[in-house]
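Known limitations

Files may contain more than one protein. Parsers should not assume a single record per file. Below, a two-record file is shown to illustrate correct handling: read the sequence, read the token line, then continue until end of file.
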Amino acid sequence: MDPLETIAAPTATRPMLGLTVLVVEDSLYASEALRLLCLRSGARIRRADCLRSARRHLQVYRPSVAVVDLGLPDGSGAELIGDLTRGAARLGVVAAMSGDPGVEAAAREAGAQIFFEKPMTSLAAFQQAILAQLPEEYRRSGPRPLSGEPIEPDPVAYKDDMAHAAELLQENTDTATLAYLGQFLHGVARCAGDEELEAAADHLSARLAEDQPLGSDLGQLAGLLQARVGQRMAI
């Protein structure tokens, strides 16, 4: 069944009423922003935090829209975007999301119709991008109010992301884990406007790319994470 066949009639204030959005995002903070965007637009949301979880979801139901982060713990979101924009599994609207604007070309090449650069906090921009990709018969005609108020996710979700990152750093410092951690923290810090942590994440990624020693860098990063979690953790 076409996932758009079950759409309820949208309204001026809830133009995405009846849509189900699958959010594939490993950050709780970024996911919370998308949850609020969907809620205020009238859409239902389901979340997967990795490629494996997303594929389990897709075996059970068909969303109307998918928003896929490109940096996931078990691979690139571009792989899933390719699956969702080709063949029998194709969805009507597939958006990519990343804190790195330089990956937009790769997202488009994979098949994404939309690219959201983190932080995504504008309700108007979110709605306009999604609705523009829907078939004409599913769009509500006429004017509708557009809120200019930015979405502000619960800061508790940011703290949870920081605790997750601190646990990763504490448990494993292999190159693959650190590469993922740098990418993860860059995106989360960018969403939260945490410039200090974003710079530290970028520094970690640069040092990894140059195959440089990381001892003092990891200690400094651990300190930043501990400060944001609000409790002391063993290094």
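...continuing to the second record:
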Amino acid sequence: MAEELARWAADLEPEAGDLALAQRALVDTLAVTLAARDDDLVRIASGLPDAARWAAVGHVLDFDDLHMESTTHISVVCVPAALAVGGGARAYLAGAGVMARLGMALGWSHYASGWHATCTAGAPAAAVAAAVGIGLPAEKIANAIALSVPAAGGVQRAFGSSAKSLQVGFAADAGVRAARLAAAGATADPTALDAWLGLMGGSPDRVETSGPAVPGGLAIKMFPCCYALQRPISALREGLPAAVEPGEVTAIEVRTPAGTVQPLIHHRPRTGLQGKFSLEYAVSAALLDPHPGFGSFTDQAVNRPEAQRLARLVTIDETPGGDWLLAGDVEITVTRDGGDRFTVRQELPPGSPGRPPSKEDMEAKIADCGADVPALLDGVDWGIARGILSGCLPAR
């Protein structure tokens, strides 16, 4: 499979739609990375190599894009890996395409068992992005993939801590390291990827190299938290009458397929990072805040007495099944004093491939990432992007 994916990557000739996706991914990834410039992780990660540092900081706010079919954060791995070696859109797309296909080959059962697919599929994908960026032939791309296999790991228990974004950084760095070793002449057995896939419970039969570079496209987040929370938040924001005051709420019932809450492991969060993986808190923030943004996912915001009160009112009815984060739909019933009940439902949140973000949506998101960010990213290309990251997130 490594040889098949390497040949696909080496031969990739992006079409107009692929290049448009790559440009949007570049701008979105840079914006959410710049939004985290003041996060403590910048200091923590300052001694890491470029790809690791940029990927970790880009992921710490959990505002970066997602490939739905593979449940992987593609761009925060593949953009830094490509930029770290001076690569551009084609290198990114090669890595992104491999990451999507590997993630789909691993399947939902891999994610549902607790693996962080962004890291497991991410290390080989970063190796491809870096190898194509360097200009390696297919044989050496396959070697790079195999050399990345020992680092292809990451677990969901990291969610809600610095470890989540750091392990994404480790995946990006492992791929760049593997590509540079392959370029220097290191050899590896390409069948290591097939063996690894079997150990991880995946199937090479699911790999299909036809179609667009990134099959299914990418979902853009509108709220800075786990993708599993995008739908519940937007359902309440779009469907609940404005007349419902948070102080009047006495019960909140959430009904959703079990698979859609897989990453939501914090039920009584006490930190902003934990709040990004808490359905109970996300519902509270959607009721309390005009727009659940960066300010909603701080330690102080999570510990607001009213947010904690509302979170305790949430009951979750997990219906059987669900093999991706947007399986079925979410139904939320809010009860207020006097017994009035209001029910909202949603299948696709804004920003999902089925409800792609508008130009205005993207502009608003970029503006939220910092007053200077729109000007910094105006007309940005892959060559400029490397300089922006190097200047804003310097190594120690």
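Parsers that stop after the first record will miss the second one. For reference, the second record is described as follows. The longest helix spans residues 89-112.
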